[in-house]
Design goal:
The chain has about 280 residues and is α/β, with parallel strands linked by helices. It has eight helices and 14 strands. Bound molecules: fe (ii) ion (2 copies).
Length: about 280
Amino acid sequence: MIDINNKELDYFQPIQIAEGVHWVGYADSNGGLHCNPYIIIDDGEVVLIDGGSRDDFSTVMLKILRLGINPKQINRLIYQHFDPDLCGNLPHLEAIIPNPELKIISHKDNNVFINYYSSASPKLCIEEIGYAYTFKSGRRLEFYRTPYAHAPGSFITYDCKTRTLFSSDIFGSYDDVNWSLYSNIPKECYNCKPEINCRLTQTECPIHSILDFHRKNMNSAESLNYALDQIENLDPLLVAPQHGSLIDSKEKLTMIIDKLREEKYIGFDYFLQRTRNGKD
Ligand SMILES: [Fe+2]
Ligand SMILES: [Fe+2]
């Protein structure tokens, strides 16, 4: 396991975050977001989760190659919903993966739209495969639906071997603050009411950035809380979101979940509330 206190992490390289699990992500300077594709290598079998955008294909692919992976080892592409920040490079990936066994795993409500990126590879629906993918070694990935958090077909992926949860857009964050792969929230901030600028550190508040992302990008408090229930039940050791930073302690995860649950105005309710207050 990586030493997360090591400040010398080289973000130009793939970074191992758990046994056989590697971050192969990048900063999207256009969108003001970090995007975090992850790759799982298990006994020579490879699965890529939320592969990334079209423009950043070369960055992701270079990191995959630096892991010593031959693209034909990639067996499955998992897409936890259908947005372009995670699906945009699908045609590029298909072009470079000479594996006739390559299949896409998503939910059928996502596959309708993923077909518009490419209809070349067969698409499996998580419901039809028992909400799980099992590597040849027996390592099991489980899929849990998180409907409308934020897409109708959204789901999250749990690696039973390492207890890593790939949480898709849940726990995402804008890059308003200095990004680091492992979330860096001072303990002093756990009990404070998040504001844009932290009263303690006088810098932009990472918790505020997470809350802001969910207010705008999740559909409703109800759908977000449903997703948070799933996550709490799984009790992961490590949470790996598609944007923002890794959450590597239960205490930190609980704090963020509690703050998200306090948010009453999410999605359309957030829009209405801002409109009523003359902010939109
Ligand atoms: Fe999304
Ligand atoms: Fe996203």
